[in-house]
Design brief:
Elements lengths: L12 H4 L19 H9 L3 H10 L12 H13 L1
């Protein structure tokens, strides 16, 4: 018999995200450092969209969230405000 597992609550995504298993150094690099590795990890993460949604809703201004850098999230916010 197959029993469907309910989707995790919206607030549970941080514990299930790949970044929880990785050091924060990748996601909050020193200014001028590459975010390539953080974006690679985000690209494999099933929680990526929940993470990005959280970052946008909470105006996270630093680090890589949902696979996007600070500048990329700012561009996304501005584009959304213009529509």
């Amino acid at each position: 018999m197959y029993i469907e597992t309910p989707a995790p609550p919206h607030t549970a995504w941080p514990e299930q995200a790949l970044c929880a298993e990785t050091g924060a150094d990748f996601f909050f690099p020193e200014p001028g450092s590459s975010v390539r590795e953080a974006k690679r990890i985000c690209g494999m993460c099933a929680m990526r969209s929940a993470c990005l949604e959280y970052a946008l809703a909470n105006d996270e201004r630093f680090g890589v969230w949902g696979g996007l850098s600070e500048k990329e999230r700012l561009r996304l916010r501005r584009a959304h405000q213009q529509t």
